[in-house]
Give the backbone structure.
Amino acid sequence: MDEQLIVAPIQRSRLSKQITVQLCRMITQGQLQPGDRLPPERELTEMLQVSRTSLREALRVLEMAGIVTIRQGGGTFVRELDDDGMLSPLLLMLDVRGDLVGDLFEVRIIFEPETSARAALRATDDDLTELDRIVRSQEQLTEAHAPEDAWLRLDRQFHIAVARASHNEVAVRVMRFITEMLQDVQRTFVASDQRVDRAVARHREIFDAIRAADAKHARQAMLQHLREVEEFVLQGVANAGAGDRVSPAS
């Protein structure tokens, strides 16, 4: 475990959920490794600037999720994660209120990277032409600072087109369902130019990997893209109590 943990003070409402997310970030970012013991309660409460009650509630959530083990008198330890590494802080953040956004993002992280890999192996010339058209159009809209609705339509088209290039009809239907479920969320919030630029760059990387028939790179690029989207949405959810507005641009 790193001696100096990078921890941002928790400042808003719903402290226990935000503490849960902060600790998940420390694990997913490698600051805490499987087998590591978390700092003592007193030290953690000072680092996070929260009460022991809120901290203990968060630790109980992590224990129920199978992420940590609490040993009476022995401290709290990070457990070994599943081989697929699909720990989702966003899902944990939203699970308490039954919000489907967390579930949808978890499904995307499981589903889309593998679909992208298959697209790299199966895409036809027509598939590549369509993906190229969408990415070029997104780049042009971004440069022109076009209205966000136009960009989001292309965003949904891109992810569906990747599924279509996998030549798996079920994958296309699943992707259509997910994008439809997320439409209202996407319309509600506003993404920064920097966030949109990053998403477009990732789309270009995914497309280039598919065009090169590089399944491994396509899988990794899509996974990284979705992780960045999840982190962006997660930050917005954590700040929602103060009225901040963000967009899960993907």
Summary: The radius of gyration is 20 Å.
